[in-house]
Amino acid sequence: MSARTPRERPSRRPFPRLIAAAGLIPAAAAALVLLLGSPVTEPGTPAAPRSGAASTTTAPLPASRPLRVGIPALHVSAPLVDLTLDSRGKLGVPDPAERNLAGWYRDGVTPGSPGNAIVVAHVDTPTGPAAFAGLDTLRPGATVDVHRADRTVATFRIYAIEEFEKSDFPSTRVYGPTKDAQLRLLTCGGAYDAAAGGYQSNVVAFARLVSIRPPEPTVPSENVLHDS
Description:
Elements: H1 18-22, H2 26-33, E1 66-71, E2 76-83, E3 102-105, E4 115-121, E5 124-125, E6 128-129, E7 143-148, E8 153-165, H3 171-175, E9 181-193, E10 198-213
Parallel strand pairs: 2-3, 4-9
Antiparallel strand pairs: 1-2, 1-7, 3-4, 5-6, 7-8, 8-10, 9-10
């Protein structure tokens, strides 16, 4: 496991144009923008994050597809697309051409359900900052809202943010199962080195479910006809 990188981030090339510069197809460019360590399916018991808080008493929710992720402190509200593993067992990424887009690992748990849900977004794109730009500036206590298909909103509180070198990414710790409802947000970080394949680290935010907003009651339209 790699030691935590100091919060002062090394300088990086802003908004790398990976597709044009590398002459790659979009899928290959996406892998350079965000290549996430070892397979998600790596077995083992995860170690507890270095900094943390007591487990939430909020009861987990039944499964329901996540539709949107919001980070109020960063003014982020991004739709979620489904992500899967590629042939090498590595987690896919959202379309690198879309700046305001995040992805959810659909073969894992849904955010708010018991276990560890995974959400990924780019830090930047060829045209500017992306959905998770600034993720590494958050502090414990920041909240993340996940809007779900059942119209509930699951709110998570971040309890740790860490940066790991991609060459020594602690997959079991990041992706491993949890008993309560937790969330991991992942993006790129660290130095940008085009010769070495792009960003050299990943930023990971660890969060726990702390509250649930139930669906709002349906209000009949004024145009609906009622029996006399």
